[in-house]
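Hi W.,

Here's what went into the run:
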Amino acid sequence: MRLYGYFRSSAAYRVRIALNLKGLEVEHVPVHLLKDGGQQLQPAYLSRNPQAIVPSLELDDGTVLTQSLAIIEYLDEVRPEPRLIPADPVLAAKVRAVALAIACEIHPVNNLRVLNYLKGQLGHSEEDVQEWYRHWLLKGGLEPIEEMLPGDDFCFGNAPTLADCCLIPQLFNARRYKVDYDHLPKIMQAEASCRGLPAFEAAHPSHQPDAQ
Amino acid sequence: MRLYGYFRSSAAYRVRIALNLKGLEVEHVPVHLLKDGGQQLQPAYLSRNPQAIVPSLELDDGTVLTQSLAIIEYLDEVRPEPRLIPADPVLAAKVRAVALAIACEIHPVNNLRVLNYLKGQLGHSEEDVQEWYRHWLLKGGLEPIEEMLPGDDFCFGNAPTLADCCLIPQLFNARRYKVDYDHLPKIMQAEASCRGLPAFEAAHPSHQPDAQ
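Here's what came out:
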């Protein structure tokens, strides 16, 4: 399998964590979102992913899967151990809800292309964009997510799930944009639990071959 | 079960379609997003859904599930017929990818609270907001989604899936904001196939008790 990604993309980062947790090896193909006017906009990549976003997972038969959460659900179906989505339907719904709260409420609004639209088409300052980022990260996202967590070692229970695969990349972004979340103890606990794990460490943006 | 929703929320609309397709009856509890300063911000609702968004599904034992896609996955697990997510893992990934392309790339960026931020905090005109809406709906969303569809009667195959549950509410929004998508024949075909079905018709915003 080949994973088309970008070291700093938090959606690609989610999939790297999931692949590592399941012990699946893939070929990593970097798609640089800033170089060459955006390599994701070139025909070679668009033919695989018409949305022009990363990641994409190319299976050995050439089938291309897109959307990080759909890719992780696929991996969980074809390689169920360790399970990233619990077997119990109610617990599965709670895990997915946290993953979706990150993937739908925080990430899209604070995506590079949205920030670029605010700066470009709408002419906003860095300060406006920083305040936008902070607002949607905390009020729209991490603060309500804190309320959705039971307060276990990881997001849910004593092992990582899909929720942790989504949370850790989002926290990496929070730190990068200097947004504090020390007032959210359950999120801090889940982050501390993941930090020691090789699957999370190896997926970190700074350890990717395309990291600059 | 109780569904907390709002007639015009496309996330609630998705869940209504899924419930109808599965023949599940629920009590509908309206949460008016504009009245009383936003009923979703009142403590009674926040205690169920800290994200202050609709929908929420309250099970008979009081458990509350949130995030429309997580709710539909739950319904598909506890009431598998008719399946909204195909059993085949690759096809499931493709269906989920279209659902997520709508739920993650279009909907959050064009959500009422984001449009309000653009108008309020950032002081933009109706024209700016309309252009923002159109841009993310088409370029960020429906146009690439057209490329992701195989061109069947419905989004995938000859029966509705999770993808159709997400597409139809998004198209309702497109029409409401007067954004044309006649140039997207596969999306038009899926819409035409769903239009005749009672499950979709009964879920339409105009048929909800809280519709004004």
